[in-house]
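Quick start: what a row looks like.
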Amino acid sequence: LEVGTAYFYAFNPSMGEWEQFGPTLRSDEDIASLGGEFGAAVAIGLSDLPRIVVGAPKSNLNNSLENGRVYTFEAIGIDWETMEATPMFGKFPYDRFGSAVDMTKDGLRFIVGAPGREPSGAYFQIYEWNGSAWVLAFEEQGSSGDALGSSVAVLTDSGDVFAIGAPGY
């Protein structure tokens, strides 16, 4: 099974072409990550140090399936370094946490959707960087079958306005 990858590119005006920024990113590559769809959702924030968030909505946790994972990275020179010791996981089986992600322009806040949980509904969460770790700042639960969090978008640079899709409502 696949583990997934994510790539980031930047336009080099002096060369007139697009170049890969940093190395190719890969999931943990442990048994729970196989088939996890690392790279299914990606977003970037361009602060002093570029930061990215990568979703892997079908990653497993212990013996439960498709909890989902979200990874965050920060650019250090021309390399990507993880921002947390372990990725963030969905709360329950079949959450598909990380199906959709977006990040503020400054890279200090991101939003993640978990549209897959039944029967009690899906959810989305907003995380903020406190200087040393990502902290859960806000969470909203959907209704049964609404698939809340299937799409997410930060609508302002600071992240104080956002939109969430719920196509199953």
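That is the whole record. The first strand starts at residue 5 and ends at 6. The CA atoms of residues 55 and 98 lie 4 Å apart.
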